[in-house]
Records
---
Amino acid sequence: DAGVIQSPRHEVTEMGQEVTLRCKPISGHNSLFWYRQTMMRGLELLIYFNNNVPIDDSGMPEDRFSAKMPNASFSTLKIQPSEPRDSAVYFCASSLDGPAIYGYTFGSGTRLTVV
Amino acid sequence: DQQVKQNSPSLSVQEGRISILNCDYTNSMFDYFLWYKKYPAEGPTFLISISSIKDKNEDGRFTVFLNKSAKHLSLHIVPSQPGDSAVYFCAASKSGANNLFFGTGTRLTVIP
């Protein structure tokens, strides 16, 4: 299994531009999570999906952020318009349905820099 | 508000000695705790976990201790090896929930 695949690995964009981050979860996993890593807050949950349905998006910072999961094998996180404070590493993770006790499998992350 | 806290951003330990990483939580509803390890340019990987019905779980060189009354857990690595140098994240979850709450991480450096 190739694991959770994220693209791009690095993204540098100018303030005001639209940014789209992509994630392919592990086949058979039906929960998908988007996390953001910052020095101040560590890994914070932005949104998670179960069976392609958004369950909790309370972590999405503001309306500039949106996420979709059109099918079981693909998800996007979009920031429009992007701002310098959005600069962070964004991780996607997937898991089998059930409690979080089974742990997640994380992708390698997308390092976003907004200048 | 940060429900899982790792108050030490960094820790340096000599090779062969014990590394102790600490984690505190505020939500008494948490009943499952995990440690993740993260190398640069990689995603976090699951290391070890513990249920609230236990106070200790051991896996090779790694042992996690849970003190529910103090809402505190710790990860012990004995003996520490240079390959253990990484950022360690503590995480917690509630029964039936499908999301994890993470701390800010502790960067461990094992000095050869």
Note: The mean pLDDT of chain A is 92.
---
Amino acid sequence: EVQLVESGGALVQPGGSLRLSCAASGFTFSQYWMTWVRQPPGKGLEWVANIKVVGSETYYVDSVKGRFTISRDNAKNSLYLQMNSLRAEDTAVYYCARVAGYCTKGVCYYLRFDSWGQGTLVTVSS
Amino acid sequence: DIQMTQSPSSLSASVGDRVTITCQASQDISNYLNWYQQKPGKAPKVLIYDASNLETGVPSRFSGSGSGTDFTFTINSLQPEDIATYYCQQYDNLPPSFTFGPGTKVDIK
């Protein structure tokens, strides 16, 4: 059974930093892209970042570029999100998710988030 | 950037009703459109990928159609367990990025 378990959420002051972790099990972690998605309280979903299988290629939503860094350790079956210069608008439940589908020769097929963790709450407030 | 809109933002229907939600993209996204269900307090779950493909294990009363800019998601016979918020999501090829629609909340009348 695929399992994704996030941790690291906390209350942090504006301008502070936080590192989220996601422990994966039940599948071959090194064969899948991974992603972070966030959801502010009572609001909709926002994609945050992707990372490819090797970890050398990462992609971000504009609002977090330069502040957040997605990374992975395939030996530890773990995904991370380093969040710096946090703002009140970063307050959200953060989900890690597995990306199904694939890309080849510049075209992607069947990309979707097919397994999700339970989420971890990040609150940015003074 | 591609913008996604959904309508309606909420709806109430009776058990057994057919429910339809629409999603519109601000530009042609081919069939790169997924649908998710999120129940209160739970993580989202993918139901439909690439506009019309049913994810493994998802009941056949859920379906999707469309291409280009206009997409439709249908629940053929609404069940009490379908109470949730439904989101469409588009994806771009390279670089791969994703945008969710604002969501449609479905309640039982």
Note: The radius of gyration of chain B is 13 Å.
